[in-house]
Structure to design on (164 residues):
């Protein structure tokens, strides 16, 4: 008799030891505090109006829609930072810390993203101007550690430029 993945979870996974659970709790508390501090810093920056909206600083894509197979160069760190607001976002799309090492590299477009499942609220959302790069994916974060899920990063077209 076949069982679904959820029913087999206890058989396929090992329980964590005391120190592993303690370490995960420590990291969870660290993430929560880090988010709160980040929120307060951004709130203070908004109140002081020391940041200008970077949404307008981003150069709009010049009618060039990138397609699967196109070769692109990811812009430099400075060029990308100029497009980001104080939340590290451009038009609602976040630029993750784990994406910085790819700056300046040449990549190939795997596909365009027109809609996706937002796992935070399990809704299908529509988007435009976002591409996925072939072989460029998340391997984990500083806060959560390594991960084997292999999620693709979302790249705004403003962060890459077509080669040729």
């Amino acid at each position: 008799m076949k069982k679904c993945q959820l029913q087999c979870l206890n058989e396929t996974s090992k329980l964590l030891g005391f120190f592993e659970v303690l370490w995960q709790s420590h990291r969870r508390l660290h993430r929560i505090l880090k988010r709160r501090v980040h929120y307060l810093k951004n709130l203070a920056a908004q109140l002081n109006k020391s940041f200008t909206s970077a949404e307008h600083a981003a150069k709009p894509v010049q009618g060039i829609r990138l397609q699967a197979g196109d070769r692109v160069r990811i812009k430099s760190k400075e060029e990308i930072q100029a497009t980001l607001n104080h939340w590290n976002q451009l038009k609602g799309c976040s630029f993750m810390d784990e994406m910085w090492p790819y700056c300046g590299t040449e990549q190939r477009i795997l596909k365009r993203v027109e809609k996706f499942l937002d796992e935070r609220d399990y809704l299908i959302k529509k988007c435009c101007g976002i591409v996925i790069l072939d072989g460029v994916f998340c391997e984990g974060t500083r806060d959560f550690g390594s991960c084997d899920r292999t999620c693709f990063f979302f790249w705004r077209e403003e962060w890459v430029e077509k080669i040729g």
